[in-house]
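Sample 1 of the test manifest.
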Amino acid sequence: MDWNFIIFSLVKIAIVVGVVQGIVAYSVLAERKISAWIQDRVGPNRTAPPFMKFVPVLGPFLTRLGIFQPLADGLKFLVKEDFTPAGVKKIYFWLAPAVSVIPAMLTVAVIPFGSNLGAQKMVIADLNVGILYTFGIVSMGVYGIVLAGYAANSKYPFFGGIRSSAQMISYEISMGMSVIPVLLIVGNLNLGQIIGWQSGHGWLVAYAPLSFIIFMVASFAETNRTPFDLPEAETELVGGYHTEYSSMKFALFFLAEYSNMVASSAMMVTLFFGGWTLPFWGLDQPAQSLAMGVLQIFVFLAKMLFFMVVFIWVRWMFPRFRYDQLMDLGWRTFLPLALVNILITAVWLWLRS
Amino acid sequence: MEQINNLVNGGAVEDVLFYVFAALTLLCAILVVANPFSRSPVTSAMFLVLTIISMSGLFLLLHAFFLAAVQILVYAGAVMVLFLFVIMLLDLKEEARRKIKFFGLAAGLVSVGIVFSIFVKSLASLQPEAAGPALEGETYALGKLLFTQYTLPFEIVSVLLLVAMIGVILLSKRKLE
Amino acid sequence: MAITVNRKPLTFWEKLYLPAIVGGLKVTLKHAYGTLFQGKVVTMEYPEQKWSMPENYRGAPYLVKDQDGDTKCVSCQLCEFVCPPKAIRITPPGDSARLADRANAEKMPLEFEINMLRCIYCGFCQEVCPEEAIFLQKDYSLTGTTRAEMIFNKEKLLALGGVSPGIQKWKDKLAEAKAQENFPVKL
Amino acid sequence: MHVGLHHYLFVSFLLFSLGLLGVIMRRNLLVIYMSLELMLNSANLALVSFSRFNHKLDGQVLVFFIITVAAAEVAVGLALIVALYRKRQSAHVEDLTSMKL
């Protein structure tokens, strides 16, 4: 531990948080745009700062893309009235959005988003129990939702909170079990080591496809995205746990949801799709030059954004599951499948050794 | 700068962190048991979550990384959510503040005194720190130990889990046929 | 008595969800492709692109002038009477006021107000008007920042309504009556 | 003075006492249950610190088992409390005076 370490860590934290926030802001835009395209619409294409009128070609093009929409959204969230309904449990009501954002932001700390730039490893905390850390932090995410539901003192948010606590515990188990084959194959809990193994042997999705599928579905459930968005099912529960929230507190829940999406996309890329590696142009080895390091960061971002798009895309493919179907799927389909998967992988490894 | 570096390398930061985490743990634990501001079980549960998190900080200082993660994952992530779930399900009202019974207080203090005497005795018979290489949080070694020397307890615990699961399912059925 | 319709049991493939997933992928991709590359957009970008209304579209009611630029309305107050939401308010000319500013009319409204916030675009006023002085036109984008601004007075209604030459209504009525006479009615 | 085994054991002792006091003095079944968790956790802390300062992993293995057993215990205990609440509409020790449900 010395000063260099502390300074570089702080810089990395600042950059990663900034980038994640940026991705979150623009994934809201992407969500709106992709939804629009799938539904034969155009999507946000008007918002622009006043001076954009005077920029030729580029100005109208960027406006058409809706690049400035997130800024307007953010501003709107900031200046809206922050309303606290009567009868809420004030402390929890104020605490809940923060409690839901913090774990979402903490998860990205252990994810290696690049090999190295110079002597610096491109990961904030190179823990040797990286995966367990992620699962632990993800499991804390439920508190925000449960507290929001409890604090609102209103029946629909309460239902949302109760549903989400049951849903998240259930799918956490499938999620944890689905990763075990990966750990068996690699033999390490460190995410950096897992990527290192993949650069030598090929992507893990080829070795454990069932794991990937279960992990992906479970992460949909963990981030409360369709088809598992029961905690906020707007047709039944108005808005679920964030019904009573407004202004920036409401925005924080959105921030948490999208940060969770970023984190689980990053986890999927790291665990199953080789992280920052690509199997050609020598991109599968830790970078020697600065340019290579930057390129690998962009490879990671590209892979991650692909999964973000999948998250958004899937939203328009399926209707929402019913609550009993959700539980049935989690406990009676994915859990046995994951267990069988562990068994098969273990036997396969045993036969090979 | 030099001095600070020495301090950092000499473990002073870890000592400070120990005091911070220990204070947090104890403070939150007090608030679990006796909160002067709220009698709601939800508050107790939330402070227990904080206790557990700061305890996993202590585990980190003890270089038990695996256990720190498991502590958060199992205790804070599952057990306490279960607690919250049940509290909300039962819709417990804030309980009225009742008079502390003299008998209860006396019994409590006596039992704490007994525990304290055991603690003092055990401190007296404490051996100086054993020699040997310091253990880092070796997940691998832990797993190896778990599946070789402790295989039988491991199996028994898994059977216990199964039994607990069946028991809970039976208990939570509304009617036993 | 309730009839229970048993649901068909799912086949193996349906239970796997896989065909449904592939189907969903196909449909969503098709639509996204159509929107992005073939310009198949169902929405309209409103202020620039405007909707072309059908012939019988009923928009906001305005007063019209005849070919000489005179007000057609003769202040008969039939529209005020028939208006279901009571959006129309006509002030007839009093005794002392000049009754009409054109020769072939007995009187003219002193003031004619339509409260556009109340109007339901039913078209009864147009239907009932003997002089063809009020028409539902194709204006559907009425906006205002105050309630007072949305009460249109005579000048505004006339300005918005424009000119409609000739009085066609009685001719049309005649044709209608003729058509009914010729209609083979069997008793 | 360096933080050593004593310090950790003292924290563990205080936690255990707090849990004990909670079990004896509180009347809400759920809070009593949480105090039990506190006591288990204090044992965990003691075991981990023993393991650290004696350079043996056995303590950590024991903690692993404790956490597992605690999870099972909580599940069963909470199910019991829910069942009790259904019968009696109360989760208070003082309302539970007869042994028969």
